[in-house]
Automatic annotation (TrEMBL):
Keywords: Apoptosis, Mitochondrion, Transit peptide. One of its GO terms (cellular component) is mitochondrion. Belongs to the Smac/DIABLO protein family. InterPro entries: Smac/DIABLO-like_sf, Smac_DIABLO. The keyword Transit peptide applies. This is Direct IAP-binding protein with low pI. SUPFAM superfamilies: Smac/diablo. GO terms for biological process: intrinsic apoptotic signaling pathway in response to oxidative stress; neuron apoptotic process; positive regulation of apoptotic process. It is found in: Mitochondrion. It comes from the Eukaryota.
């Protein structure tokens, strides 16, 4: 109510201005022209209008809706393009981090039993740090993936809105952009899937190699203890 009371003087001013302008620009007997329509548009709703006033005489509601729908598809396509780029970069960085971790783990397994305790501890610190890097890159990847999915849904809704409003070209364009984005992301995801597969294989290799190493140590210890047992019997 307070807003309405504050708006009443402004509305009264517009109406008074309309009467002055109409009386000065439209002599008796003349039909209302552009100025009358302009003033009428301004006074409706206390001076608020959804479109530029100069377009009111030339565009219908359908035309304005189609233009608005085209703007929506353009902005949603830009959003999709940006999130697609961010997601692909995140997937690429995650894949690189995984491959680096794989290389470190395989190098460690190849040198198992040949390192001093200090060297082994140093290598493990590097591996632990790389594992943290992998987790961080994966979190970033998942975060951008969630945003990208939202962008795809937004574009799908924008395409549907454009189609129903008659902006078929805008609808087709944004749907094409969705297909391209899907294709690009799928190609990038193949890299991450391949990296994950190799990491899983490396973990299996690590378990097997560690089991062999422990078994070898136990066997060596047993061989060293047998002569001592015979000596004690003698």
């Amino acid at each position: 109510m307070a807003v309405l009371r504050r708006g009443l003087p402004y509305l009264s001013f517009l109406r008074s201005s309309a009467r002055v302008l109409l009386s000065s620009r439209n002599p008796a007997g003349h039909k209302p022209g552009k100025w009358s329509r302009l003033i009428a548009t301004l006074t409706v709703g206390g001076g608020l209008c959804a479109v530029p006033v100069k377009q009111v005489d030339n565009l219908s509601h359908d035309s304005l809706i189609r233009r608005a729908a085209s703007l929506v598809t353009d902005s949603s396509s830009t959003f999709l393009s940006q999130t697609t780029l961010a997601l692909i970069d995140a997937i690429t960085e995650y894949s690189k981090a995984v491959h680096t971790l794989i290389a470190l783990q395989r190098r460690y397994l190849a040198s198992l039993g040949k390192l001093t305790p200090a060297e082994e501890d140093s290598v493990w610190q590097v591996i632990i740090g790389q594992r943290a890097e992998v987790n961080e890159r994966q979190d970033e990847y998942r975060r951008f993936e969630s945003t990208w999915v939202s962008a795809v849904k937004l574009c799908e809704m924008a395409a549907e809105a454009a189609y129903t409003s008659g902006a078929e070209h805008a609808s087709i364009t944004v749907r094409t952009n969705i297909q391209v984005a899907h294709s690009q992301v799928e190609e990038a995801q193949k890299l991450s899937m391949d990296a994950d597969k190799k990491l899983a294989e490396t973990k299996v290799m690590e378990i097997e190699r560690m089991a062999q190493y422990v078994s070898s140590l136990e066997s060596n210890n047993a061989e060293e203890e047998v002569p001592e047992a015979y000596l004690r019997e003698d």
